[in-house]
Design goal:
The protein is an alpha+beta fold. It is built from 14 helices and 15 strands. Helices cover about 25% and strands about 15% of the residues.
Length: about 475
């Protein structure tokens, strides 16, 4: 096992800063490269690394491909970045398989799309409270103003219910299922422990190989800031201890979600059935609102299982009778249910090659503080709410894009033929490829819910390079 160089790894890879409940994400466009690099150089000792857990504030920074070009990175170095990162999130073929169509089309995005200003830098600011966050933001805004212009400031909100449980806006407990990075102090099941190279460049991945990394010719690094390529090419490794970061702003149609469930579960006399609403919502998610997985407790919520993540599918629920095959958590992490050998180590090994680390934050005020569906349905709605989806992966194509295309938006997933992810999936509303169905597997016959609308709409997004702290210094001192 290769020891992780935590002092050189940006902290957002190692932890999600759950103790720092206030956060904002600032999107910048470089207008003066020299001034911007001078500003970045002053930040090189301020970046939060992965060794220490911050207690009050912290800062992490990432760059788009266009941002690296604007900084003045040479053509050869730029050519060594991954194709997905170079092409960006909004190519036409990528929009098709990511499900960024119709209301989610990049042409309608608020940032990151073809009709918006170009994003170069992502400034990620975290603090213990809103007052500390405002002070941190104002400090950095004063200093970046000489070289970069703020395109957007994305605010966040830390939704909690009345019992101080963190939830996303649909009302489900958030942040339960995360892979464990091999080499950190946190331990867990072997099935959920993933090689560091899946998330951090410069370490062996689940294939036992080093994921392709951006490189710099030795003569381009006369100060020797970067480490040598561990594979012996003679180049300097710009990627080592860094990663790629996927950012998507996802607007959640919370009241529409619960209204659809209300209509789908009404009694024959037209009366609402709140228990049936929650049961159907839980089947779409794969967990009860408090977090218990349906595969372990299909008929009722179990508070003792609220954070349970130790389960599989093939041996306990191969046909989806407990947790439907199209449930969100079953699609986004199929565990041991993948062909060609479900229930075996081979299946688990395949699954491990497509995991992502989630580091997102919610935004917008909850429709109802209680997160109770009845309160949500009866509330007056204003403003927007959703999720700033952020994930870390060393290979965008094999991890984030694979999950989105092959599992989330694939109507043929696990033997289905017209279902996409019930919660976040794309909806094709017409023709023989219509994907507006949610199927509940059962004996003797299945039950199908039809006419699912889009519950989540993309408002913006981009791919970023999250450099190591030494690579950040190199970029600032070129």
């Amino acid at each position: 096992m290769h020891p992780l160089k935590l002092k050189d790894i940006q902290g957002i890879i190692i932890r999600g800063y759950s103790n720092l409940r206030a956060a904002c994400f600032v999107l910048l466009e470089i207008q003066n490269a020299k001034a911007t690099k001078q500003w970045l150089l002053t930040l090189s000792n301020s970046l939060q690394n992965g060794e220490e857990r911050p207690s009050k504030t912290c800062l992490n920074i990432a760059f788009t491909y266009e941002g690296l070009k604007a900084l003045g990175v040479d053509k050869h170095t730029l050519s060594t970045f991954s194709n997905e990162f170079k092409e960006g999130m909004v190519t036409s073929h990528r929009s098709r398989f990511l499900g960024d169509r119709e209301e989610s089309a990049p042409e309608l995005w608020e940032w990151g799309g073809p009709n918006t200003a170009t994003v170069h830098i992502l400034l990620m600011l975290y603090a213990s409270d809103e007052a500390a966050l405002l002070e941190l933001y104002e400090f950095h805004a004063k200093n970046f103003a000489g070289g970069a212009v703020q395109m957007n400031k994305l605010e966040t909100f830390f939704p909690k219910d009345e019992e101080d449980v963190r939830r996303e806006h649909f009302g489900f407990r958030d942040g339960i299922s995360q892979p464990i990075i091999e080499g950190l102090s946190r331990v867990g099941s072997p099935e959920n422990t993933i090689k560091a190279g899946e998330f951090i460049l410069g370490y062996p991945n689940e294939y036992g190989l080093y994921t392709e990394r951006p490189m710099v010719k030795a003569q381009q690094d006369p100060q020797g800031i970067l480490p040598n390529d561990i594979e012996g090419s003679g180049d300097r490794d710009l990627g080592q201890n860094g990663s790629y970061l996927v950012f998507r702003q996802l607007s959640q149609r919370v009241q529409e979600f619960w209204r659809f469930l209300d209509d789908a579960t009404k009694e024959s006399n037209g009366q609402s059935n709140p228990n049936a609403q929650i049961e159907l919502a839980s089947k779409m998610v794969g967990r009860w609102p408090d977090g218990a997985p349906l595969v372990k407790t299909p008929d009722r919520d179990e508070p003792a299982l609220a954070n349970d993540n130790d389960f599989d599918y093939h041996h306990t629920d191969p046909h989806g009778f407990k947790c439907p095959l199209s449930a969100h958590i079953r699609r986004s992490n199929p565990r041991d249910s993948l062909d060609p050998a479900p229930g075996t180590e081979k299946s688990i090994a395949i699954n491990k090659r497509h995991r992502i680390l989630r580091r997102g934050r919610s935004y917008g005020m909850p429709i109802a503080a209680s997160m109770n569906p009845r309160d949500i349905l009866n509330a007056e709605v204003s403003g927007e709410r959703g999720m700033h989806f952020i994930c870390i992966n060393a290979n965008i194509g094999r991890q984030f894009e694979f999950v989105q295309q092959t599992w989330i938006n694939n109507p043929k997933f696990s033997g289905l033929y017209s279902d996409t992810d019930a919660l976040i999936g794309d909806r094709n509303l017409e023709g023989i490829e219509a994907t507006v169905t949610f199927t509940e597997q059962s004996m003797p016959v299945r039950k199908r819910i039809i006419g699912l609308p889009r519950f989540v709409v993309v408002r913006g997004g981009a791919y970023f390079f999250l450099p190591s702290i030494s690579a950040f210094r190199y970029l600032a001192s070129m």
